[in-house]
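Thread amino acids onto this structure.
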């Protein structure tokens, strides 16, 4: 890590492909952690882990516009300090868990445009598109993900359900049968 990263508070670190957040339970500790994250972002507003941390904090504070702005700003950051694709995927996963599918859709749309070679990013796009009712976009996203990683049962399953939701029942049936044959223990595929 560089000199600036060494000065960042321990709340955020990105080392060897791992994002680490050290937040201790309890209001007093949480308040200090948020203050530390705010200082980290002020110190280095282009440091992706700081942007990720403050973006998620803003969503939790119910400041959705500010969280959205921070997460979308990740799309313009360079890939210098860390794997920005992984940071963006973590932000998108946070949005999916928080059921902020419209914001996740915008984030993943921009991300696959910048990084069209990552199946997991298309998977996030497909998930958000499906939840927002854009079933054709979800199908297209899962097809692209499967083109990149054709042996992933979870992507095959997701494609099958998206085909079902889009009304393409015969193809959905074929794809879901293939998903079950890939892993018959998967309850969602059956």
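Threaded sequence (190 positions):
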């Amino acid at each position: 890590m560089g000199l600036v990263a060494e000065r960042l508070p321990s709340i955020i670190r990105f080392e060897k492909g791992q994002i680490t957040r050290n937040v201790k339970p309890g209001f007093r500790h949480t308040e200090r952690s948020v203050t530390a994250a705010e200082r980290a972002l002020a110190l280095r507003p282009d440091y992706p882990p700081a942007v990720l941390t403050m973006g998620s904090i803003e969503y939790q504070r119910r400041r959705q516009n500010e969280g959205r702005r921070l997460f979308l700003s990740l799309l313009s950051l360079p890939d210098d300090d860390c794997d920005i694709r992984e940071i963006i995927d973590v932000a998108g996963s946070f949005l999916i868990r928080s059921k902020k599918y419209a914001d996740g859709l915008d984030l993943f749309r921009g991300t696959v445009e910048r990084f069209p070679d990552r199946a997991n990013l298309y998977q996030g796009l497909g998930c958000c598109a499906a939840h927002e009712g854009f079933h054709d976009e979800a199908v297209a996203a899962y097809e692209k993900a499967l083109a990149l990683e054709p042996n992933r049962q979870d992507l095959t399953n997701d494609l099958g359900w998206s085909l079902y939701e889009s009304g393409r029942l015969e193809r959905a049936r074929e794809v879901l049968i293939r998903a079950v044959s890939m892993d018959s223990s998967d309850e969602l595929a059956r």
